[in-house]
Protein backbone atom coordinates (compact mmCIF):
# COMPACT_ATOMS: atom_id res chain seq x y z
CA UNK A 1 0.00 0.00 0.00
CA UNK A 2 1.20 3.49 -0.72
CA UNK A 3 2.01 5.89 2.08
CA UNK A 4 -0.69 7.91 3.77
CA UNK A 5 0.41 11.53 3.85
CA UNK A 6 -1.54 14.18 5.76
CA UNK A 7 -1.57 17.97 5.63
CA UNK A 8 -2.87 20.02 8.54
CA UNK A 9 -3.02 23.62 7.36
CA UNK A 10 -3.78 26.83 9.20
CA UNK A 11 -2.55 30.29 9.96
CA UNK A 12 -1.24 29.37 13.43
CA UNK A 13 -1.22 32.98 14.64
CA UNK A 14 -0.08 31.64 17.11
CA UNK A 15 -0.11 27.85 17.46
CA UNK A 16 -2.17 26.72 20.50
CA UNK A 17 -2.35 23.56 22.59
CA UNK A 18 -5.51 22.73 20.62
CA UNK A 19 -3.54 22.65 17.36
CA UNK A 20 -0.70 20.65 18.93
CA UNK A 21 -3.15 18.06 20.25
CA UNK A 22 -4.67 17.56 16.78
CA UNK A 23 -1.19 17.35 15.23
CA UNK A 24 0.01 14.77 17.79
CA UNK A 25 -3.03 12.59 17.23
CA UNK A 26 -2.93 12.96 13.44
CA UNK A 27 0.79 12.12 13.37
CA UNK A 28 -0.11 8.63 14.62
CA UNK A 29 -2.59 8.11 11.80
CA UNK A 30 -0.27 8.99 8.92
CA UNK A 31 3.13 7.85 7.69
CA UNK A 32 4.02 11.49 7.26
CA UNK A 33 2.21 14.64 8.38
CA UNK A 34 2.89 18.08 6.95
CA UNK A 35 1.86 21.05 9.05
CA UNK A 36 1.24 23.86 6.59
CA UNK A 37 1.67 27.41 7.76
CA UNK A 38 -0.45 29.28 5.25
CA UNK A 39 -0.49 33.05 5.08
CA UNK A 40 -1.56 35.78 2.72
CA UNK A 41 0.57 38.70 1.72
CA UNK A 42 -2.28 41.15 2.20
CA UNK A 43 -3.72 39.67 5.40
CA UNK A 44 -1.35 40.59 8.17
CA UNK A 45 -1.58 38.69 11.42
CA UNK A 46 -0.28 39.46 14.89
CA UNK A 47 2.90 37.39 14.55
CA UNK A 48 5.19 37.59 11.53
CA UNK A 49 5.13 34.37 9.48
CA UNK A 50 8.79 33.67 10.37
CA UNK A 51 8.01 33.87 14.06
CA UNK A 52 4.92 31.62 13.66
CA UNK A 53 7.09 29.12 11.85
CA UNK A 54 9.73 29.18 14.58
CA UNK A 55 7.14 28.59 17.32
CA UNK A 56 5.49 25.76 15.39
CA UNK A 57 8.81 24.01 14.72
CA UNK A 58 9.85 24.24 18.34
CA UNK A 59 6.48 23.00 19.61
CA UNK A 60 6.55 19.98 17.27
CA UNK A 61 10.25 19.13 17.47
CA UNK A 62 9.70 15.75 19.14
CA UNK A 63 7.34 14.47 16.42
CA UNK A 64 9.63 12.72 13.98
CA UNK A 65 7.17 12.22 11.11
CA UNK A 66 5.92 15.82 11.22
CA UNK A 67 7.34 18.52 8.97
CA UNK A 68 6.42 22.21 8.99
CA UNK A 69 6.07 23.80 5.56
CA UNK A 70 5.25 27.41 4.73
CA UNK A 71 3.06 28.61 1.88
CA UNK A 72 2.25 32.18 0.90
CA UNK A 73 -0.84 33.01 -1.14
CA UNK A 74 -1.45 29.38 -2.08
CA UNK A 75 -4.40 27.03 -2.26
CA UNK A 76 -4.13 24.12 0.18
CA UNK A 77 -4.89 21.61 -2.59
CA UNK A 78 -2.06 22.93 -4.77
CA UNK A 79 0.47 22.58 -1.95
CA UNK A 80 -1.04 19.19 -1.09
CA UNK A 81 -0.56 17.93 -4.65
CA UNK A 82 3.02 19.20 -4.75
CA UNK A 83 3.80 17.11 -1.65
CA UNK A 84 1.89 13.97 -2.60
CA UNK A 85 -0.63 14.53 0.19
CA UNK A 86 -3.46 11.97 0.37
CA UNK A 87 -5.49 13.49 3.22
CA UNK A 88 -6.24 16.99 4.47
CA UNK A 89 -6.66 17.05 8.25
CA UNK A 90 -8.91 19.56 10.01
CA UNK A 91 -9.91 20.04 13.63
CA UNK A 92 -13.47 20.48 14.85
CA UNK A 93 -14.49 22.22 18.06
CA UNK A 94 -18.22 22.70 17.63
CA UNK A 95 -21.13 22.89 15.20
CA UNK A 96 -19.97 26.25 13.92
CA UNK A 97 -16.60 24.75 12.96
CA UNK A 98 -18.42 21.86 11.27
CA UNK A 99 -20.47 24.26 9.17
CA UNK A 100 -17.37 26.15 8.03
CA UNK A 101 -15.14 23.10 7.66
CA UNK A 102 -17.72 21.07 5.73
CA UNK A 103 -18.06 23.90 3.24
CA UNK A 104 -14.29 24.06 2.84
CA UNK A 105 -14.04 20.28 2.46
CA UNK A 106 -16.76 20.23 -0.25
CA UNK A 107 -14.92 23.00 -2.07
CA UNK A 108 -11.56 21.26 -1.81
CA UNK A 109 -13.03 17.98 -3.04
CA UNK A 110 -14.29 19.81 -6.13
CA UNK A 111 -10.78 21.10 -6.72
CA UNK A 112 -8.98 17.82 -5.98
CA UNK A 113 -11.17 14.73 -5.93
CA UNK A 114 -8.29 12.41 -5.11
CA UNK A 115 -7.59 14.13 -1.78
CA UNK A 116 -9.80 13.15 1.17
CA UNK A 117 -10.52 15.50 4.09
CA UNK A 118 -10.61 13.94 7.55
CA UNK A 119 -11.75 15.61 10.77
CA UNK A 120 -10.51 15.09 14.29
CA UNK A 121 -12.62 16.27 17.22
CA UNK A 122 -10.86 18.56 19.63
CA UNK A 123 -9.95 17.25 23.07
CA UNK A 124 -12.46 18.38 25.73
CA UNK A 125 -10.00 20.80 27.31
CA UNK A 126 -9.47 22.71 24.09
CA UNK A 127 -13.06 23.24 22.95
CA UNK A 128 -12.94 26.97 23.70
CA UNK A 129 -9.40 27.59 22.56
CA UNK A 130 -8.60 29.60 19.45
CA UNK A 131 -5.69 31.68 18.20
CA UNK A 132 -7.89 34.78 18.29
CA UNK A 133 -8.56 34.29 22.04
CA UNK A 134 -4.81 34.01 22.59
CA UNK A 135 -4.19 37.21 20.63
CA UNK A 136 -6.73 38.91 22.88
CA UNK A 137 -4.92 37.67 26.01
CA UNK A 138 -1.60 38.91 24.63
CA UNK A 139 -3.13 42.31 23.91
CA UNK A 140 -4.29 42.56 27.52
CA UNK A 141 -0.97 41.20 28.81
CA UNK A 142 -2.72 38.25 30.47
CA UNK A 143 -1.16 34.83 31.17
CA UNK A 144 -1.22 32.61 28.07
CA UNK A 145 0.86 29.76 29.47
CA UNK A 146 -2.04 27.34 30.15
CA UNK A 147 -3.15 27.49 26.50
CA UNK A 148 -0.08 27.52 24.28
CA UNK A 149 3.21 25.64 23.90
CA UNK A 150 6.19 26.98 25.84
CA UNK A 151 7.72 28.21 22.57
CA UNK A 152 4.91 30.78 22.24
CA UNK A 153 5.25 31.98 25.85
CA UNK A 154 8.99 32.40 25.27
CA UNK A 155 8.53 34.33 22.02
CA UNK A 156 6.04 36.75 23.61
CA UNK A 157 8.29 37.28 26.65
CA UNK A 158 11.36 37.89 24.50
CA UNK A 159 9.57 40.38 22.30
CA UNK A 160 8.15 42.32 25.24
CA UNK A 161 11.53 42.37 27.04
CA UNK A 162 13.09 43.92 23.94
CA UNK A 163 10.11 46.26 23.50
CA UNK A 164 9.70 44.67 20.09
CA UNK A 165 6.48 44.62 18.17
CA UNK A 166 5.03 41.10 18.00
P1 LIG B 1 -7.39 29.11 10.02
O1 LIG B 1 -6.90 30.51 9.90
O2 LIG B 1 -7.29 28.27 8.78
O3 LIG B 1 -8.71 28.95 10.76
P2 LIG B 1 -6.24 28.07 12.39
O4 LIG B 1 -4.78 28.06 12.66
O5 LIG B 1 -7.08 28.89 13.28
O6 LIG B 1 -6.29 28.47 10.91
O7 LIG B 1 -6.85 26.59 12.39
C1 LIG B 1 -6.36 25.53 11.63
C2 LIG B 1 -7.13 24.27 11.97
O8 LIG B 1 -7.03 24.04 13.37
C3 LIG B 1 -8.61 24.30 11.66
O9 LIG B 1 -9.00 23.02 11.20
C4 LIG B 1 -9.26 24.55 13.01
O10 LIG B 1 -10.56 24.02 13.08
C5 LIG B 1 -8.32 23.78 13.91
N1 LIG B 1 -8.34 24.26 15.29
C6 LIG B 1 -8.15 25.51 15.74
N2 LIG B 1 -8.24 25.57 17.09
C7 LIG B 1 -8.49 24.29 17.51
C8 LIG B 1 -8.71 23.67 18.78
N3 LIG B 1 -8.72 24.38 19.90
N4 LIG B 1 -8.96 22.33 18.80
C9 LIG B 1 -8.98 21.63 17.67
N5 LIG B 1 -8.80 22.14 16.44
C10 LIG B 1 -8.56 23.46 16.35
From TrEMBL:
Reversibly transfers an adenylyl group from ATP to 4'-phosphopantetheine, yielding dephospho-CoA (dPCoA) and pyrophosphate. It catalyses: (R)-4'-phosphopantetheine + ATP + H(+) = 3'-dephospho-CoA + diphosphate. Its cofactor is Mg(2+). Belongs to the bacterial CoaD family. The keyword Magnesium applies. SUPFAM superfamilies: Nucleotidylyl transferase (SSF52374). The lineage of its organism: Bacteria, Bacillati, Bacillota, Bacilli, Lactobacillales. It is found in: Cytoplasm. It comes from the Bacteria. Its main location: cytoplasm. Substrate binds at residues 11, 43, 76, 90. The keyword ATP-binding applies. Keywords: ATP-binding, Coenzyme A biosynthesis, Cytoplasm, Magnesium, Nucleotide-binding, Nucleotidyltransferase, Transferase. The record marks 19 as: Transition state stabilizer. One of its GO terms (molecular function) is ATP binding. PANTHER family: PHOSPHOPANTETHEINE ADENYLYLTRANSFERASE. It is an enzyme of class 2 (transferase). Pathway: Cofactor biosynthesis; coenzyme A biosynthesis; CoA from (R)-pantothenate: step 4/5. GO terms for cellular component: cytoplasm. It holds the Pfam family CTP_transf_like. Homohexamer. GO terms for biological process: coenzyme A biosynthetic process. Residues 7-136 form the Cytidyltransferase-like domain. Its EC number is 2.7.7.3. ATP binds at residues 11-12, 19, 91-93, 101, 126-132. This is Phosphopantetheine adenylyltransferase. It comes from Streptococcus ratti.
Amino acid sequence: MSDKIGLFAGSFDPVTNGHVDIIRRASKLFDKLYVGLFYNKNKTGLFEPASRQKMLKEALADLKNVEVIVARDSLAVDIARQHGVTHLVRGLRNAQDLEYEANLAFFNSQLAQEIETVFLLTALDYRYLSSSRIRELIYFKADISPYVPQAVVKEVEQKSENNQKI
